[in-house]
């Protein structure tokens, strides 16, 4: 059966990571976390909106199949706005709803690039007296190896290109793509 064309097909230059690869990696990361957290009853997953929404939903279910119970919390901290480079200023758009003091926290990120968002977030969470704070990110850009805080769980290393899909946007569009892709140059130029 021919698959239906979608509105975004014409905008895609190339797919970097397929839906199947994301699914398999999510299960693998969940198994690693479950092994490392054996003996711990409950973990608070802190998803970083909006980008991590897709990964958070899939990762929480994957962890639920093999690991400890989870509580879901979300924070929103934006440093990119509408563009493709970090503004350098992190703004809190949404705070935690509950106290994390004494809890084991796993920050769930979609992507770490400059590491600015994460560095800020880790300092912020440290000030809330969690028992432990660990990070899982599905994607890592090369810049993160120079400047980001230590990352325990990493899904895929990406090239230094601006990517979209699976939660990642360009001007708030393309988050719903099931894969991660690079857009055609003319699409980025249109803004
Ligand atoms: O390592 P960095 O250079 O700080 O980049 C990583 C952050 O950038 C994106 O968020 P963004 O600020 O674009 O907000 P969004 O998730 O709402 O799109 C992404 O979701 C990460 O949180
Ligand atoms: N959408 C998107 N957001 C990012 N934040 C940091 N790097 C990226 C990227 O490549 N794409």
From TrEMBL:
**Keyword vocabulary terms for this entry:** Cytoplasm, Glycosyltransferase, Magnesium, Metal-binding, Nucleotide-binding, Purine salvage, Transferase
Extract the SUPFAM superfamilies matched here: PRTase-like
Pfam families, per the entry = Pribosyltran
Q: In which pathway does it act?
A: Purine metabolism; IMP biosynthesis via salvage pathway; IMP from hypoxanthine: step 1/1; Purine metabolism; GMP biosynthesis via salvage pathway; GMP from guanine: step 1/1
Q: Which residues form the Phosphoribosyltransferase domain?
A: 21-170
Give the UniProt subcellular location, in the record's own words. Answer: Cytoplasm
Q: Which cofactor does it need?
A: Mg(2+)
Molecular function terms in GO for this entry? guanine phosphoribosyltransferase activity; hypoxanthine phosphoribosyltransferase activity; magnesium ion binding; nucleotide binding
Highest taxon listed in the record's lineage: Bacteria
- Which Enzyme Commission numbers does its entry carry? 2.4.2.8
What general EC class does the enzyme of this chain belong to?
transferase
| GO CC terms of this entry | cytosol
Q: Which reaction does it catalyse?
A: GMP + diphosphate = guanine + 5-phospho-alpha-D-ribose 1-diphosphate; IMP + diphosphate = hypoxanthine + 5-phospho-alpha-D-ribose 1-diphosphate
GO annotations under biological process? GMP salvage; guanine salvage; hypoxanthine metabolic process; IMP salvage; purine ribonucleoside salvage
Q: Which family does the similarity line name?
A: Belongs to the purine/pyrimidine phosphoribosyltransferase family.
**What is the protein name stated in its UniProt record?**
Hypoxanthine phosphoribosyltransferase
Tell me which species this is from: Natronosporangium hydrolyticum
């Amino acid at each position: 059966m021919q698959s239906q064309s979608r509105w975004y097909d014409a905008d895609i230059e190339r797919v970097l990571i397929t839906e199947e690869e994301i699914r398999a990696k999510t299960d693998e990361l969940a198994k690693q976390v479950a092994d490392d957290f054996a003996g711990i009853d409950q973990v608070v997953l802190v998803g970083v909106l909006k980008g991590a929404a897709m990964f958070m939903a899939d990762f929480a279910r994957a962890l639920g199949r093999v690991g400890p119970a989870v509580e879901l919390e979300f924070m929103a901290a934006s440093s990119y706005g509408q563009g493709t480079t970090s503004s350098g200023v992190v703004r809190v758009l949404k705070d935690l709803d509950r106290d994390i003091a004494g809890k084991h926290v796993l920050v769930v990120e979609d992507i770490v690039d400059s590491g600015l968002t994460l560095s800020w977030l880790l300092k912020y969470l440290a000030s809330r007296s969690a028992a432990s704070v660990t990070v899982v990110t599905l994607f890592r850009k090369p810049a993160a190896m120079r400047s980001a805080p230590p990352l325990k769980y990493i899904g895929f290393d990406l090239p230094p290109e601006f990517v979209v899909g699976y939660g990642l946007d360009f001007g708030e569009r393309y988050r719903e793509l099931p894969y991660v892709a690079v857009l055609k140059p003319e699409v980025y130029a249109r803004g």
